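Page 47, continued from p. 46.
Same chain as before, 263 aa.
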Amino acid sequence: MSEPARNASPGTGRVLVVDDSLSVRRAIERMLAPRGLTVIPATGGGEAIERLGEERPDLVICDVMLPEVDGFEVCRFVRGDAALADVPVLLISGAGSPEVEQRAAEVGAAGVLTKPFTGQSLVARVEELVSGGRAPALGVPGGARTEAVLAQLATMRGFKTAFAIDAEMGEGCRAGGGPVPASLVTLVREAVALAGELGLGGSHDLLIDGEGGTLVVQRLGQVCIAVCFDDSTLMGLARHQVRRVCSSHDPRASRGSLHGRST
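Result:
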């Protein structure tokens, strides 16, 4: 049975909270209500989709692990609905793994909050998202050139996802917009730093094995382009395509390779 939406101070933000645990839903409500946020509860992904069809929240907070319709599917539904496409989805998960964060990025989530989380961290993230302070506002590292590269890579055979990461500043953006999980930013930056220590510099592409698959990483000036493909048998072709696309936008992005395995 659906619980009625509970209003704190109307007009300051409506948050759909999706979790099959009553204690978690009530805990989140206790954290958000004092901030004047209206909480709309849902017990699962199916109910969340029904709620989304009835009313438009300013933010969705959704557990990843849900029966039948999980949090990734809820996020995919939101991103695919023209009326909801700009509503941010914050996923919560008991497993803060790179694989979860990568899947969250692939479906267009605004981020992943790992349980247990503090009221302060939740409120800060929620207020940022409700007020429109989303990661894409930081811009794409490398500007229009990087956007053109990501758009071209997205048309390639076997393409799964791609990221652009500023190797020095640590900022990133995925193809299609949205933030890059912090764990992936760290993984790529550490691999690039290792390549530099080995004297390989920017003339080599990197193969980085992560939980979500193998990333092909190519430097484009100060920006690192990281691409993941859904078919490992295409890796040779994928590396060639990534080098070709990047070199067409920057002749310094050339040949060579370094195989790195993440731990």
